[in-house]
Every structure is written in C-alpha cells, then in structure tokens.
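Lecture notes, part 5. Sequence design as translation. It can be helpful to think of inverse folding as translation between two languages: the language of shapes and the language of residues. The source text, in structure tokens, appears below.
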C-alpha cells in the first residue's frame, strides 16, 4: 500500500533520516518505535508532506506521493499529529466538520459524523462544547475522530498515548485495534514500545534516523536485543 524507499530528511545541517525503508501492507497495523530523536515523527511527517525530503521516494498504491499535505489527505492518508492540535476555541462538532473538508458529499459527512459519535460516545456528549474544555484524553479522542471524518485509507497516528493516564492509554490502544479490525490500515508511531509491538502486524525499530531492526511485532517484543535496548529488560 505504502512504500518508503531510501528516505533522507535534513533539518539544516542535521540529517534526521539516513535513507530509511518502510513498507506498509493494506490492512496492517505497522508500528514504529524508538527513543526520542530516533526519527519516528520525522518519518510520519515526511509521509504527510509536512517536511521536505532531501532524497528518497514515497509511493502510495504504486503512485508517487504528492508533497503537498492537502494532496496527501485527498489521496486518503490522514495524520493525527503529536499533541492533538485540535481547535480549542470552536465546538467539538465544528472540529469534526473541519476534518471532513475534503468530502463534498454531505450525506457521507453526516454518516461519518454518526460513525465517530458511535465510536466515541463522550464526543457525542460534548459535541457543543469548545474543544479546549475537553480533558487530555477526550482531546485525543477528538483528534482521532476528526481524522476519521475524512474516510482515510491509511491513518497515521503520532504518539497517541503521549501524556495520557494508564487507563486512557489502554482505551486508545483498544481503539486502534478496533479500527484495525474494521479494516483500516494504520501506521502507529509510539514511545510505548511494549503496547505497540504487542498489537502490530509488523514493526520497525528506529535509532538516530536509521532502521536498526524490523519484523513481526510480537517477534520483536521477544527479541533480547530489542528488549535490552528499548524495553528496559534483559530477561
């Protein structure tokens, strides 16, 4: 579905990605884990067109992926950014409507609205509140719901559990699994390596802008080298 080949990204004189390769098959959860500064968010931002590539190629369903973010969204690739970035001064419903800006079919917009309300009952309850009045967990749910409003084919989740309490983190991971069971393809970028690898069909471990290990999620979870370096365990 999505292929990243020899991707290089630089910020000034600093090289953030050193020619990485990533492949995402349709219907998979693919996890990308690693420490802060490993290049996870840079990778997802490059796919979204938010950062410029210095070299490399990204293709989606066999076609070169456009570099402009709005064109990427129209192709069906939607990112839930780190830090949620909802619009705090407008209502929850208005946030959701903005998420459907690429869809001209009003009937589809309304069906998507009902779908996200069914997925997130708390979002339905808070639909008339300003986005900024929601709790951190509710804002994360709103950010995911807003992304789903555009009927994505590939959902890019950048640190969805960041800053959330353990109970809410479990809810977010359950939601990711539910969306996957519905057939949605997901790229999950997370510092929570244990939970990410446990649900991933395939995973990549990044270190200083390079892929240092890859494989089935549960295989990496049991790999002693990955355990020692990234999971804080030598058992």
């Amino acid at each position: 579905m999505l292929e990243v080949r020899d991707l290089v990204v630089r910020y000034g004189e600093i090289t953030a990605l050193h020619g990485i390769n990533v492949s995402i098959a349709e219907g998979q959860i693919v996890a990308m884990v690693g420490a802060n500064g490993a290049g996870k968010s840079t990778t997802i931002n490059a796919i979204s067109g938010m950062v410029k590539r210095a070299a490399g190629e990204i293709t989606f369903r066999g076609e070169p992926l456009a570099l402009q973010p709005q064109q990427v969204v129209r192709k069906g690739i939607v990112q839930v950014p780190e830090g949620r970035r909802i619009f705090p001064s407008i209502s929850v419903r208005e946030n959701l409507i903005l998420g459907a800006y690429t869809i001209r079919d009003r009937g589809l917009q309304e069906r998507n609205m009902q779908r996200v309300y069914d997925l997130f009952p708390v979002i339905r309850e808070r639909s008339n509140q300003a986005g900024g009045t929601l709790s951190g967990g509710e804002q994360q749910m709103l950010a995911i719901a807003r992304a789903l409003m555009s009927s994505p084919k590939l959902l890019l989740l950048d640190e969805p559990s960041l800053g959330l309490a353990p109970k809410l983190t479990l809810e977010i991971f359950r939601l990711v699994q539910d969306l996957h069971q519905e057939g949605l393809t997901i790229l999950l970028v997370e510092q929570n390596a244990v939970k990410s690898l446990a649900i991933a069909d395939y995973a990549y471990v990044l270190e200083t802008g390079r892929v240092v290990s890859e494989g089935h999620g549960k295989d990496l979870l049991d790999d002693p080298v990955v355990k020692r370096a990234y999971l804080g365990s030598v058992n």
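The translated text above is only one of many valid answers, since several sequences can fold into similar shapes. The chain has two domains: 1-76+153-235, 86-152.
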